[in-house]
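INTERNAL AUDIT FORM
Audit reference: QA-55
Scope: verify that the stored structure record matches its stored sequence.
Auditor: D.O.
Record contents follow.
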Amino acid sequence: MANPEYTTVRMRDDRKRRLEMAAIEVGYAKKEPYKWTDILFYLIDEHLDEAVKDLKNKRTKNT
């Protein structure tokens, strides 16, 4: 099995902090550690199609 390729993502500190706080909340509730990247991967894996559909239906910023 080939090693997966990775990349980085750049985001503002306030957004990362929101993900970190969500990971703390989930980890506390489930009594196991969660990382902010676990939350980010879940959002991408489970909600990307919904986000694309929503963004396509919104007006652009310039109109």
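Auditor finding: record pair retrieved intact. The radius of gyration is 15 Å.
Action required: none
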